[in-house]
Write a structure and sequence with these properties.
The protein has helices spanning 17-31, 53-71, 101-115, 132-146, 161-175, 201-214, 223-229, 235-246, and strands at residues 7-12, 35-40, 75-78, 119-123, 153-158, 195-198, 250-256. The chain is of the alpha/beta class. The chain is globular, with a radius of gyration of 17 Å.
Length: 261
Amino acid sequence: MTGPGTTVLAVHAHPDDETWATGAALSTLSALGCTVHLRVASGGEASEPGQTEVAARTRRAGRLASATAALGVHHWDWLDEGRWIDTAGHPSPRALTSARLEDLSGAIVQHVADINPDIMLTVGADGLTGHPDHILIHHAVRHATAHLPVPVTVFGAHLLHSDIARGHELLRAELGDTTIGSGRCTGSAVHTSLRTLTATAQAASARRTAVDHYSGGLGTARLADLLRTYPGRGDSLVLRGVHDAIGWGTERYCTYGTTLR
């Protein structure tokens, strides 16, 4: 059961992952009266080019604060501010991509001890989009929760192969054979363990608004209009097409752990 008295912790690699991967669930859980926390491993520095590291993280934090407010998240924070940075998946000494699993897991355990969540949300084993930072966070959450004294239910967000295909079909209708996305975002096979959340229109709208806080119009502009103004042709655009196709309130989850709390 979820509602007042239930504490939720979402853990993600970068600012905006919380919205694209778990935004409908976070909004829904908040509306049900749950207390919702978010922890983010890196500052999303790669998404704010032309800035110093600190300035980029500060700008991204402002976008994150607006997005989480739209979703109803009660409190967000970094896992360990400045320890790991977003380098768009390129290895370097402080890159999240290069982080040790045990270090990330240890940081997560500390936040879990402070928050004492009943439920945790993150991405599934394929990282939702195949991004190496996302995949690492999935494994770090699993590693952390495997060593807790009291089990916590973890929900990992997935997309299906068919979801990705439908998104690309929508985008091809507008862009023809233009290459869109990294090619890593392929989706998961249908599996009986996957559960589908169909959130309310209010939660779906909150998620679209949250996306807009990261890039104006990316969540709410008509797709045909957006494609004339939005310069990006990466995985964020793939996800926009996917959610237009399957519904902004639709999320799919695999469950890990048990409900023994």
